[in-house]
Every structure is written in C-alpha cells, then in structure tokens.
Amino acid sequence: MSGWTELLEEIKHCKTSKDENAFDVIRKKYLLALHHYTKRNIIAYYSGFLQQGNVFGIDINDLDINGFMTTIHKLDCSKGLDLI
C-alpha cells in the first residue's frame, strides 16, 4: 500500500475520463485490489471526523441503517464483509 505522498503523486498523474475524477479512479483501484486479496465484499464508509468544530453525525449509528441496508442489498453474504 502506498503512503500519503505516493497516493497524492498517483492522483496528480492519473488520467481520467470526462465522467470520473482522479480521486475516484485511485479509490476504486485500491478497493478492487483489497477485494481481490480478501475475496470479501467491501464497504468504504466516510465521515467528517477530521472536520474542525462541533460536527454532528460523524459517527456510525442507527441513523445509518438505511444507507447500509441499501449498500448490502443483494450482496453474497457467504463472502463476508470488510467495513473500512
């Protein structure tokens, strides 16, 4: 896995299509590599925990249930799940 500096360089040099940006291309690349390694389903969950000040809703809680249920719908449960 690359360090932060290497990731920024990779993003900087990434060629993208009109509909994608470099962050998405690189994120998908590494999530796919992890999936090939673990053979499991993967959900990458992002929050604003690094934001300054009092930010509401940065934790995983019961309010996230609809999003998680939508995300896991029709996944092969026998493969397990990696939640990042």
3D structure, described in words:
- The structure is a single chain.
- With 84 residues, this protein is mainly alpha-helical.
- It has one domain (4-83).
- 42% of the residues lie in helices and 7% in strands.
- The chain is built from 3 helices and 2 strands.
- The chain has a two-stranded parallel ribbon with strand order 1-2.
- Helix 1 (4-13) crosses helix 2 (22-38).
- The longest helix is centred in the middle third of the chain and has 17 residues, at 22-38.
- It is globular, with a radius of gyration of 16 Å.
- The mean pLDDT is 85.
Secondary structure topology:
Blueprint: H1 4-13, H2 22-38, E1 41-43, H3 65-72, E2 81-83
Parallel strand pairs: 1-2
In short:
The protein is mostly helical and 84 residues long.
Features:
84 residues, mainly alpha, two-stranded parallel ribbon
Form type: globular
Report strand order across the widest sheet.
1-2
The helical percent reads 40-55%
* Strand-pairing-aware structural class: mainly alpha
By DSSP, the count of extended strands is 2
> Rg from C-alpha positions?
16 Å
The number of domains: 1
Strand/helix succession = HHEHE
In angstroms, what separates the terminal alpha carbons? 15 Å
Biggest sheet architecture: 2 strands, parallel
| Low-confidence blocks of residues | none
Strand content: 5-15%
